[in-house]
């Protein structure tokens, strides 16, 4: 069965969401960057960077958890998406692993609601449509086996991404 009732899409700024965990599309250093990473650090405040400094970075496809400080969320899950290099360098598997690693952390911390941005589809250049397919399929597979997470929100910043997720979720 498709876990449609537990997956939703919205067009919003992820820093505004009152969920248990928001996922950050970070880079390997975990010391801040552009796009959603910058927005999360700006809204969470400088203590987030202080905590991130102690984490010694993160590998591509993996995830690490911090507190969310001034965000309405409780936690930030920092994951490092692959840089798109044409698709034959393991990018799909690494992107899938970002979603899996983030969901495993959320589950371990008993998070009920989690929100994802469109990982890798900004500066890292992953094609939006195939990234969204991986996001939805990976979350769906995870939800089939899990009873902790009640709601996964795909938080799209761009109208283009919002439309893509809407149609993927509608067609299932
Ligand atoms: P990456 O380096 O993984 O590509 P980016 O931050 O450049 O990360 O882009 C990832 C996605 O985050 C893009 O779809 C971008 O539109 C989106 N984004 C940027 N700012 C925000 C925000 N405040 N809330 C949610 N999504 C955002």
Relevant terms:
Leucine Aminopeptidase, subunit E, domain 1, 5 helices, six-stranded mixed β-sheet, 6 strands, globular, alpha/beta, binds adenosine-5'-diphosphate, 172 residues, single chain
Folded structure, characterized:
Strands 1-6-5-2-4-3 form a 6-stranded mixed beta sheet, with helices on both faces. The protein has helices at 35-44, 46-53, 91-108, 128-145, 159-171, and strands spanning 7-11, 21-26, 63-67, 75-80, 113-116, 151-156. Helix 3 runs parallel beside helix 4 (128-145). It has one domain (2-171): Leucine Aminopeptidase, subunit E, domain 1 (3-Layer(aba) Sandwich). It has 5 helices and 6 strands; from the N terminus they run ββααββαβαβα. The chain is of the alpha/beta class and 172 residues long. The longest helix is centred in the middle third of the chain and has 18 residues, at 91-108. Adenosine-5'-diphosphate is lined by residues 13-15, 25, 34-37, 39, 81, 117-124, 155, 157-158, 161.
């Amino acid at each position: 069965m498709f876990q449609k009732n537990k997956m939703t899409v919205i067009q919003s700024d992820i820093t505004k969401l009152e969920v248990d965990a928001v996922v950050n599309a970070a880079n390997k250093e975990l010391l801040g960057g552009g796009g959603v990473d910058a927005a999360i650090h700006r809204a969470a405040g400088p203590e987030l960077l202080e905590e991130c400094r102690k984490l010694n970075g993160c590998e591509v496809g993996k995830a690490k958890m911090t507190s969310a400080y001034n965000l309405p969320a409780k936690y930030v899950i920092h994951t490092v998406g692959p840089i798109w290099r044409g698709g034959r360098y393991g990018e799909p598997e690494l992107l899938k692993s970002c979603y899996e690693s983030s969901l495993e952390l959320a589950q371990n911390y008993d998070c009920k609601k989690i929100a994802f941005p469109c990982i890798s589809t900004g500066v890292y250049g992953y094609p939006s449509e195939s990234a969204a397919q991986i996001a939805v399929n990976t979350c769906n597979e995870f939800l089939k086996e899990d009873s902790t997470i009640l709601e996964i929100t795909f938080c799209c910043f761009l109208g283009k991404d919002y439309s893509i997720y809407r149609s993927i979720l509608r067609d299932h």
